């Protein structure tokens, strides 16, 4: 690889953390790409995006910015106007338009199990943390990974606040000016595939559907995930 090889920055979504990216990070590193897994606080869309943006500012050279699920909304805001970000990759992710939230997008099409899956934990001050109930994590969030893996992901999940998932994106959005790529999980029970396809088409993204894939498509299908990330990197090297 050369000095123009982009750094791949991975941004996790709600009910997850950076450890889920290990299978794709190993493959990207083996192929010569620098990789950074960004911590996503999951406290509020604008504040989460500001923290990711600060990390982007610390990276020299080109960047391919990757977001899963709610992380897609975060990267759509964090990368706006950033000169280093050459491509956006959305993995079973939200791609909001101005005024849309993760919550409003997940409700736009039928088929999501989020409403029946989340377990609220009230916080001091009146806010609430949301978790995926471990009893339904496997079938609703990670149906195509092993039960043993799903149990571990359920144990290590990080909650998002209700405010974060309900906060509307402020414009302009990065995908309006930066080329984007969407990996659509064809059997997703969190963000319905129809919603993912709608957002991909609306944003003019290069899109690929992974049939029978769950919301954790990057865990169950690391090969397809890495192939799309590396396509974005090579297309905009």
Automatic annotation (TrEMBL):
Signal peptide segment: none
Q: Which domain of life is it from?
A: Bacteria
**PANTHER family, alphabetically?**
AB HYDROLASE-1 DOMAIN-CONTAINING PROTEIN-RELATED, ESTERASE_LIPASE_THIOESTERASE DOMAIN-CONTAINING PROTEIN
Ordered alphabetically, the record's keywords are: Hydrolase
Q: Which organism is it from?
A: Paractinoplanes globisporus
Where does the AB hydrolase-1 domain lie?
A: 8-227
Protein name listed in UniProt: Alpha/beta fold hydrolase
One Pfam family here: Abhydrolase_6
Instruction: Write out the GO MF terms.
Output: hydrolase activity
């Amino acid at each position: 690889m050369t000095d123009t090889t982009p750094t791949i920055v991975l941004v996790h979504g709600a009910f997850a953390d950076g450890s889920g990216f290990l299978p794709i990070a190993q493959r990207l590193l083996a192929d010569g790409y620098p990789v950074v897994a960004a911590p996503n606080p999951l406290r509020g869309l604008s504040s989460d995006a500001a923290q990711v943006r600060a990390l982007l500012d610390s990276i020299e050279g080109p960047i391919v910015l990757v977001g899963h699920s709610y992380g897609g909304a975060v990267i759509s805001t964090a990368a706006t106007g950033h000169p280093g970000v050459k491509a956006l990759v959305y993995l079973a992710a939200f791609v909001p338009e101005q005024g849309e939230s993760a919550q409003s997008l997940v409700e736009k099409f039928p088929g999501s199990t989020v409403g029946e899956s989340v377990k609220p934990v009230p916080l001091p001050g009146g806010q609430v943390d949301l978790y995926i109930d471990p009893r339904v994590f496997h079938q609703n969030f990670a149906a195509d990974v092993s039960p043993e893996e799903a149990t571990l992901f359920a144990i290590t999940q990080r909650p998002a606040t209700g405010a974060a998932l309900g906060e509307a994106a402020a414009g302009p959005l990065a995908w309006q000016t930066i080329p984007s790529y969407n990996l659509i999980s064809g059997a997703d029970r969190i963000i319905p595939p129809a919603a993912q396809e709608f957002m991909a088409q609306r944003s003019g993204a290069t899109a690929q559907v992974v049939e029978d894939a769950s919301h954790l498509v990057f865990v169950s299908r690391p090969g397809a995930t890495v192939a799309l990330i590396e396509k974005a990197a090579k297309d905009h090297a």
